[in-house]
Specification:
81% helix, rod-shaped, mainly alpha, 205 residues, 5 helices
Length: 205
């Protein structure tokens, strides 16, 4: 599932391939449950890798845009001050201050529009939530296997139901996190686009 986006149907295709041949007769239940859990766990692993790549890109956008804003903004503020000195060589520099300030504002706008800082924070948070979910699910699965082997046996009906419940909860929580993040991403993008369009209209007026 390397480099496959979460919305790519190939992810489910790979999941189906991993689970379609499972056998559920008495002697194969344990093996099939473990393979089913691994298939869901692979989805979670792919999701974590995806958000790691996304946050790395957003961190780069954030760093570059904020650095550009700081450099050009500082120059834009300093040029009028230099022009105000008694040195005649600096007199004409003041007119360029506004241009540098405009570049600084544009850099900050790009950071917001392309989800640099906000995207980095959001993707990092989602990645950590997914890692938390995966850790919790794996610990719960190990506990399930240990208690199943040491008590009634994993082939018992109650233990089989418990195994399916763990896997279903894992899959549900995994997709809930992804759907929530996608919704927040969409809302943030539309909000920033609206702000950018409003700024353009204001400048034209």
């Amino acid at each position: 599932m390397k480099n496959i986006r979460p919305e790519d149907p190939r992810r489910l295709g790979m999941f189906n391939t991993a689970t379609q041949g499972l056998q559920w007769d008495g002697e194969h239940i344990q093996e099939s449950l473990e393979q089913l859990f691994r298939a869901v766990d692979d989805l979670a692993t792919a999701e974590i890798k995806y958000y790691y790549r996304r946050r790395t890109t957003r961190a780069w956008i954030s760093g570059v845009s904020r650095m550009a804003a700081w450099i050009t903004g500082t120059i834009g503020l300093l040029l009028p001050l230099l022009a105000a000195t008694t040195n005649p060589e600096f007199k004409e520099w003041a007119q360029y201050g506004y241009a540098f300030l405009a570049v600084a504002a544009s850099s900050l706008g790009a950071n917001s529009l392309f989800g640099g800082t906000a995207g980095h924070v959001r993707f990092l948070s989602t990645q950590l939530e997914l890692e938390k979910l995966m850790t919790k699910a794996r610990v719960a699965w190990c506990h399930y296997l240990a208690t199943g082997v040491n008590s009634a046996g994993i082939n018992s009906t109650s233990n089989t139901d418990a195994g399916f419940a763990l896997i279903q909860n894992y899959a549900h929580d995994l997709h809930t996190l992804s759907i929530t993040e996608t919704g927040v991403w969409g809302e943030t993008l539309m909000k920033e686009l609206a702000v950018y369009q409003q700024d353009i209209k204001s400048n034209k007026a």
